[in-house]
Design goal:
The complex is a heterodimer of chains A (502) and B (213). Chain A is α+β, with helices and mostly antiparallel strands. Chain A is 29% helix and 23% strand. Chain A contains nine helices and 22 strands. Chain A has a ten-stranded mixed beta barrel with strand order 1-3-4-20-19-11-10-7-21-22. In chain A, helix 1 runs antiparallel to helix 2, helix 2 packs antiparallel against helix 3 and helix 2 crosses helix 7. With 213 residues, chain B is of the alpha+beta class. Chain B has one domain. Helix content of chain B is 17%, strand content 19%. Chain B has a six-stranded antiparallel sheet with strand order 2-1-3-4-12-7. In chain B, strands 8, 9, 10 and 11 form a four-stranded antiparallel sheet that branches. A two-stranded antiparallel sheet of chain B has the order 5-6. In chain B, strand 3 and strand 4 form a beta hairpin. The radius of gyration of chain B is 25 Å and the shape is globular. The N and C termini of chain B lie far apart (77 Å). Classes of the chains: A alpha+beta (502), B alpha+beta (213). Chains A and B meet through loops of A and helix 1 of B.
């Protein structure tokens, strides 16, 4: 009887967890596998990573108990036993690869691949598993597996114990950021922001590597990122190195067609360019170490009820509680300004009528002028008219150009032949200034790796920035010529300041 | 047996339909804002809220049309500045603004003349707005530290002074009192109005009444 109760309770928990895990997991999979957007209506939206971790925690507790009951106490014929064993193997593989994604940074792409296909197998098993019961005695099956766990006090007690221990497992998983030790350097130590870590101080810095995954275009969507950091009394420095098979400086080039100029693109019309885009790198910093980028990653086409849906159907970044800093390095648009675009993620804004793109909580810091512009008067996938044309013959569409190397567009000057290409990024005559220019940075590409050197004041006195203090958590994402399909990692890096230099 | 299978299949389909219905938002999305503004394209045609390009805004509240500052180095580029001068009344300072299409400098009459000559958005009744009309555009910034205006409909707006047509006002700012009179400008840096000397270089946002020609 005890074994029967234990089985029913554990089976009930496993059942609920698997449903939540499959639905939330398939939503997470939409980031890489657009096929699942066809069933987007069935999948949950919002902070699904949290639901995934919570359900996984309860599954980790209930699964061993259920398997123990199944294989030691229950009698079934060979075919059914083999079938159930298959389901059990899929569950175990899914759990193991899920745990590896949280606790091990090694071979993330391969682990993720196995996790995904094990989940698909589990989905098939889950759909077929109850059929034999359902076709014979459905009401009895529903009663036995969904209601009976609540029929007696013993079962309810077991469920409560499951909830308490599962919650403890969740809390443990959610409170385990990796540490990045940040050594102190002298205030007068000079570090040139040039993309090279050739200063002596960098040689003694602690380096941490993380496997990021889930991006577009990288090898298997993965990029290994190494990061080290130093600080003095007022500033923090980062040196970041990440794998990228190609240096991509072709950013939405303009091409002349027989119907006029067009933006060369593959997805830009839906804010999800995947081919003709610059390489980028993003650093998200927050006082919160909560999973899913400090709880800002809300997946789905419309995770915010009453707000506009996103055209790419992948999700929005926003925070309900506090601001997260988002520094965005762009290989063409900001690199030759020696800055990262200082942005932030805050509370979701009200939609602004007349604006074509809604970005929820992702916004730019204030700007006092400068910056870059895109060389078109109004973007349409059907065609554009450039704002400016080159003063001299263009030999490449890569990189950016300066304002004064171009002149105002005139139809009489537009004698470009069909097939001609132009770069689309123009730097204004003055650099980006104000809150957006708080982070200085320089990236260099060499032999399959980008190298990025970054510095920012720990405290900028800007309400839209966070103070980069001991204990702040950080997430790193690389973009390989993709607009928004960036790599990611599960657990954050937590900055731990050492007040003595090494 | 067949009946039982049909019943169960029906039950299963019903459950799937209920699941599908639950996933549909119960209420339609609310409209973004009241439709005070309507975009008007270069030919003078009203277009959808998220479409473009647009050169003018129809203001249903004020019952007039606003010209939208551009970023195209045309005479209507938002970066050009103008001193205040009336070519009909001959008051003000004629050459203290900065625009590319006139030397030695520009004044507000120049852009009014250009707008009516070129019939921007099919209109030829362009003029400087009154200060009250300009103040009606003031609203909290829609982006951090941005100008006090609805930047979805009015992109390229600056955090600076915009001239109104209200002139011959006494200058009250102490440093300018010796100049006696000036015109009223509305600052989209803070949403306030003040009298500035005619010689000041400020931005312009024209309005037009009436029907398109």
């Amino acid at each position: 009887m005890k074994s029967r109760s234990l089985f029913l309770v554990s089976h009930f928990v496993v059942l609920i967890c698997v449903v939540i895990l499959l639905l939330s997991g398939l939503r997470i999979a939409t980031l890489q596998h657009s096929f699942w957007l066809h069933v987007s209506w069935l999948l949950p939206q919002g902070l699904v990573h949290l639901w995934h971790i919570l359900a996984a925690s309860f599954l980790l507790l209930a699964l061993p108990i259920m398997l123990w009951c199944l294989y030691n106490k229950r009698q079934e014929n060979g075919a059914f036993k083999a079938w159930n064993k298959l389901g059990s193997y899929l569950l175990v593989v899914s759990c193991t690869t899920g745990l590896l994604q949280v606790f091990s940074e090694a071979a993330q792409a391969q682990v993720k691949w196995v996790h995904y296909y094990a989940a698909l197998g589990l989905l098939l098993f889950f759909l077929l598993h109850p059929i034999r019961y359902y076709l014979t005695k459905p009401l009895r099956v529903l009663s036995t597996y969904l209601l009976s766990p609540f029929f007696n006090k013993q079962n309810v007690g077991l469920l409560l114990i499951t909830i308490v221990i599962g919650a403890a497992i969740s809390a443990y998983i959610l409170s385990k950021p990796d540490k990045l030790v940040v050594y102190q350097i002298e205030n007068d130590s000079f570090i040139r922001i040039d993309g090279k870590d050739d200063e002596l101080d960098w040689q003694s810095a602690n380096e941490v590597s993380i496997g990021t995954f889930g991006g577009a275009n990288f090898n298997n969507g993965a990029s290994k990122v190494s990061v080290k950091a130093l600080h003095n009394e007022s500033e923090i420095y980062f040196f970041i190195r990440w794998q990228d098979p190609s240096e991509s400086l072709l950013h939405l080039p303009l091409i002349k067609t027989n119907k006029g100029w067009k933006v060369k693109e593959n997805g830009f019309a839906h804010n999800n360019e995947l081919s003709f885009y610059e390489d980028k790198f993003a650093m998200l910093l927050s006082k919160s170490c909560f999973i899913a980028a400090a709880g800002t990653a809300h997946l789905g086409a419309n995770p915010l009820k009453g707000k506009p849906a996103n055209t790419h159907k992948k999700g929005y970044h926003y925070s309900h509680s506090r601001t997260a800093d988002l520094w965005h390095w762009k290989a063409v648009r900001t690199n030759n300004m020696f800055i990262m675009d200082d942005n932030f993620i805050g509370k979701p804004t009200a939609p602004i009528a007349g604006m074509s793109r809604y970005t929820a909580g992702y916004r730019q810091d204030s700007s006092l002028g400068g910056s870059y512009i895109m060389n078109w008067k109004w973007y349409s996938p059907k065609g554009i008219e450039p704002k400016r044309l080159p003063r001299f013959t263009e030999t490449s569409a890569e990189g950016e150009r300066t304002w004064f190397s171009y002149k105002a567009y005139s139809p009489t000057d537009d004698d470009y032949s069909v097939g001609s290409t132009l770069p689309s990024v123009l730097y204004r005559s003055n650099q980006l200034e104000g809150g957006r220019a708080h982070v200085r940075a320089r990236g260099l590409y060499d032999s399959g790796y980008w190298h990025l050197e970054v510095v920012r004041k720990k405290q900028t006195q800007d309400d839209l920035d966070i103070a980069v203090e001991d204990g702040v958590c950080m997430w790193l994402s690389a973009f390989d010529h993709a607009q928004m399909a960036h790599t990611r990692h599960v657990r954050p890096l937590q900055l731990r300041y050492q007040t003595q230099s090494k | 047996m067949k009946k039982r299978i049909v019943l169960r299949a029906g039950l299963l389909i019903t459950m799937l339909v209920i699941l599908r219905l639950l996933s549909i938002p119960a209420l339609p999305e609310p409209p973004l804002e009241t439709s005070r503004f309507v975009k008007v394209d270069p030919k003078g045609t009203e277009i959808e809220e998220n479409d473009g390009p647009w050169h003018c805004i129809k203001d249903n509240e004020q019952r007039l049309y606003w010209m939208v500052g551009r970023d195209d180095e045309s005479p209507f580029d938002s970066y050009w500045t103008y001193s205040w001068y009336s070519s009909s009344l001959h008051i003000g300072e004629p050459h203290k603004g900065s625009c590319f299409y006139k030397t030695p400098g520009c004044n507000v009459s120049d852009i009014v003349a250009q707008a009516n000559l070129q019939k921007v958005c099919g209109l030829s009744t362009w003029r400087l707005p009154t200060s009250q009309e300009l103040l009606s555009l003031v609203q909290p910034p829609t982006k951090p530290e941005g100008p006090y205006i609805q930047s979805g409909f009015f992109p390229h707006a600056h955090k600076g002074d915009y001239w109104s047509g209200d002139a011959a006002e006494a200058l009250t700012i102490k440093a300018f009192t010796h100049l006696n009179q000036g015109a009223v400008a509305v600052s989209f840096k803070d949403g306030t109005k003040r009298v500035l000397p005619y010689r000041n270089a400020a931005f312009v946002r024209l309005v037009a009444n009436g029907k398109k020609t």
